[in-house]
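Lesson 9: reading folded outputs for more than one chain in a single document. The general rule is that every protein is listed as its sequence immediately followed by its structure tokens, and records are never interleaved. Here is the first one.
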Amino acid sequence: MCRHLAYLGPDVPLRRILVEPPHSLYRQSWAPRRQRNGTVNADGFGVGWYAPDDPVPARYRQARPIWADPSFADLARVVRTGALLAAVRDTTDGSTPDESATAPYGAGDWLFSHNGAVPGWPRSVAELAEELPAEELLDIEARCDSALLWALVLHRLRSGYALGDALAETVTDVAARTEARLNLLLTDGSCIAATAWGDSLWHRLEPGHGVTVASEPYDDEPGWTEVPDRTLLLATRDGIETTPLKEPTV
């Protein structure tokens, strides 16, 4: 399992969102409060953020625990952004151990993360992998279930799917083949799409202060709302929309 978070709002230092809150993603790497599977997320971390006048986000990823990287402390103190996606990782068995398997994954202006696991991977979803063009299979960044999910989502995005549709169809296809936990998180810097499928997901919209979508609340302040399981969420700086996900046809 993992914990992840996406934010859209006024420009703030990375530290304001990821480190300073009392139950921040930084703390969730060793003391998550609502994680249903696994106990710590110390197998790596990553953050992707958008800069003004550049639609392609930057990414910083490491295979070490977030608390063990002194460079991140400096980065989080000085880098400001109005849009980010970040994650702390608990490795799935059989996955690549280096930072190539650490979210966020990225292509163009998209950032992606997966909180969950695909049992029986890769055999359980081999049929879906076979549907990808050969060049896209060869371009998969790492050997892990999350990287394959990203390839499936990315294929749909490049085919013209909207963010939410790309996540929803991927979840339905995978869930029809295995009892997976599929909390997916995707952003293009102006919209956040997320799925709740097997683990916790929360959101908070504060007018004038932005929107946050996260595996769990990073503080105990009011405004956090839990997303029902098997739900697709779409969020912008101005509003949030949720839709039940279709049950897979087995």
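And here is the second record, again sequence then tokens.
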Amino acid sequence: MYRVWTRERVFTSILSRRKRKTPGGLVARPVLTSYYKSKQFKTRPYDPYNVITSPNETILCVDSFQSMYSQMLCGLIMREEVLRVGAVFASGLLRAIRFLQLNWEELANDIATGSLNHKVTSPSIRECMAKILKPNQELAELITNECSGENWEGIITRLWPNTKYLDVIVTGSMAQYIPTLDYYSGGLPKPCTMYASSECYFGLNLRPMSKPSEVSYTIMPNMGYFEFLPHDPSAPAFSRESPPRLLDLADLEVGKEYELVITTYSGLNRYRVGDILLVTGFYNKAPQFRFVRRKNVLLSIEADKTDESELQKAIENASLLLREFSTSVVEYTSYADTKIIPGHYVIYWELLVKDPANSPTGEVLNQCCLAMEESLNSVYRQSRVADNSIGPLEIRVVKNGTFEELMDYAISRGASINQYKVPRCVSFTPIMELLDCRVVSKHFSPSAPHWTPERRS
């Protein structure tokens, strides 16, 4: 017996971000937020295959708690109609699951009583939710039974039993979240349909059900003018006297890496996107690419992107707090810890303490964490302050000699002692284990960094 669906509900976590101003006075906000606030989104035509469980009022609210709470409430109420669950990025979906873990009791109470939590103060949200929220004791009991235990494996299919797949981006830096997504979803498919950015749509995945690690995108030549810069990390930097040679689509070779350069209909001219792509083949004459990484990006949890120079500057600013203790940072490395939600930056420090009797206290090192966060870019600070999508930065102080052991380990695996450089970001499990077993103290940022949203006029 087949069940006929009149509409395909999508439970997706969509959070609008506050606008901000650039140093030059221009208003800036993410492209998706601009779309959600546009007339095109608000008056979009009805699509029976893409009906979002979240009313517009819940999406447009810039208060992350009120927006997430009301969207989660709608998703639970319409659980039987939901065929796919998702967010823009994998990290966003996991943040929604973490939100559910923290707030399921209040959500269940709202459903049982048919009254909206007093923490949701937005008049527009309260008005629209009054039309949706009705007492449902049976659903409240189901949510309580599923969420009250310690086992959250497969929670997505337990709460949304008709879910067919997860609608999230899991390529690039988001691939680190795949094991956690599999745990919460029971291994649901994670199709990757397209490759796009704020600047332009680039390509389509013609095999959307392929594994995330095997995804290749076919470039759509009609979306812009695409050129490619051969990527060779060992090559010397370009200069005005020796400008880079850009290649057209037809000049690319399978197995080689390129940096994407675009000229768009909206006015970008030979813009370096910063994405490194690997050519995997051709579809007819259009090249197919696998996304390799962002150029120069060391750390990323969600929309944030921190490169080596920015991390170095943050370390230098934080080190100023150590001067009065005659202490300096000898070496450092980092990694993005996504094992807990929300993820956070972890910085390993090896310190040189000249006067052990006057070594920096734990409170000082906590302030070093905050000083680093204050030095990072606005996107990072907004994620920390407004979106709560990144946790407090952590500094782990390691024993003296740890980075010498790290070098010895690299040399034992074939690295040249003359060319060895301390990696500024690590992810290889044996290296992580080496660093963690040498940690002597852990410190966290005691408060959120400064970030001011653009005030409404």
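What the second record shows: The radius of gyration is 24 Å.
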